[in-house]
Amino acid sequence: MSDELYRPGLEGVIAGETAVCTIAGGLIYRGYSIEELAEHASFEEVAFLILTGELPTSGELTAFQQRLGAGANVPDEVLDVLRIIPTDVSPMDVMRTATSMLAHWDPEVGNNSHEANVRKAERLLAQLPVVLAARFRLDRGDEPIPPEPGRSLAANLLWMLHGTEPSAQHVKAMDVSLILYAEHEYNASTFTSRVVVSTLSDLHSAITAAIGALKGPLHGGANERVMEVLEEVGTADKAEAWVREALANKIRIMGFGHRVYKEGDPRARYLKSLCAELAEQTGNQDMERMADVIEGIVGTEKGLPPNLDWPSARLYHYMGLPVPLYTPLFVLSRVVGWSAHVIEQLDNNRLIRPRSRYTGAEPRSWLAIELR
Fold first, then answer.
1. DSSP string for 222-236
2. DSSP label at 105?
């Protein structure tokens, strides 16, 4: 193959077509900017939009919410496995295993029709928050708290995690973060999901594989690394010295730069103001000042704007959420985008089978073992 066709990491390569999302001119879900959606929509409305292509009417939204409530049932057998998985296992590994297990109790797991896949996607959207919250509580010696009818997905998640009434500010912050993480074109985990179902595999297999891809620190796991940076720096008065030393030693600072957003991540810009509000409400102004110092120096010295992981890590910290939950929270949102891409791939499928550039030995002749 010609070297001109080779792009390491497939950078800049158009690998398919999608009507789900575009990053041209910002970030747009099904024709709507994420700024508009984050400002005006609920996560449920955005999930319906991504899965179906249109915003719901009032009646459609009510029916969708009712289906999510009915679909939130997680089999006791799955919860029993959550009890016996060793406590030192990564929450992302637990989410991957639980997603695979849920397939065994899904009545339509082998049905790859468009309509069945939408229904399966809705069930996973409802079930995965229950799994995450149950495992979180079991790890701490507490019993799982079932979801409550009538609560939004964001409110129910916070309720199931803590067993206390979440504040309106925390519910809003969680809802917005779920909206911003819901979809992002042909990223690594989404492309993984499309590759899997291009073989005519099933939706649960695709989502399981996507979670495996998201686990990596260069993808979903980056938000956890961001919090490690902020904890290492400690306070705002240490930020400038820390970041300049890191840059001098060519240490990569997670949370900055993006493969496709060269002028800045629109999700990070939107979330920054919400971070500042929550920092003020929760007494975390020093961390927000520290983040501003680091962001300013990295931007000036390296020309790297922050990506979504930079503010989202702080947002979750201000909400009192432990770091191991950060990437699994990404899963709860992105399952919507993954599912929409799985459905789209299967609606007009072609097996994804790229070529490679060979760099091995030239043709050579076999040598008998005594001659080697």
1. HHHHHHHHHHHH-SG
2. G
Active-site residue 93, yes or no? no
Q: Residue 42: left (phi > 0), alpha (psi -120 to 50), or beta?
A: beta
Q: Are 212 and 190 in contact (CB under 8 A)?
A: no
CA distance 241 to 243: 6
Asked if 355 and 10 count as a contact pair (C-beta separation under 8 A), the reply is no
Q: Residue range 14-22: average pLDDT?
A: 94
Q: What is the pLDDT of residues 200-234, one digit of tens each?
A: 999 999 999 999 999 988 888 888 889 999 999 99
Q: What is the pLDDT of residue 5?
A: 78
Give the β-pairing of 28-29 and 32-33: antiparallel
Q: What's residue 1's pLDDT? A: 47
Q: Can you tell me the distance from the alpha carbon of 58 to that of 175, in angstroms, rounded to the nearest whole number? A: 19
For all residues of the chain together, what is the average pLDDT? 94
Half-sphere exposure of 329 (CA within 13 A, CB side): 30
In the set 106, 175, 265, 309, the catalytic residue is 309
- Token couple for 210: 């996507």
Main-chain dihedrals φ then ψ at residue 293, nearest 5 degrees: -65, -50
Number of neighbouring beta carbons within 10 Å of residue 279: 20
Question: Residue 82 in contact with residue 132, Cβ under 8 Å?
Answer: no
Q: Please check whether residue 125 is in contact with residue 47, taking contact to mean a CB–CB distance below 8 angstroms.
A: yes
The string of pLDDT tens digits covering residues 147-205 is 998 999 999 999 999 999 999 999 999 999 999 999 999 999 999 999 999 999 999 99
This model's pTM is above 0.85: yes
Helix (H, G, I), strand (E, B) or coil at 199: coil
Q: In whole angstroms, what is the distance from residue 255 CA to residue 186 CA?
A: 19
Contact 188, 219 (CB under 8 A): yes
Neighbouring CB atoms inside 10 A of 53's CB total 13
Query: Which tokens sit at 299?
Result: 């931007």
Does the pLDDT of residue 7 top 90, yes or no?
Answer: no
* Catalytic annotation, pick one of 204, 258, 317, 341: 258
Residue 258 is among the residues annotated as catalytic for this protein: yes
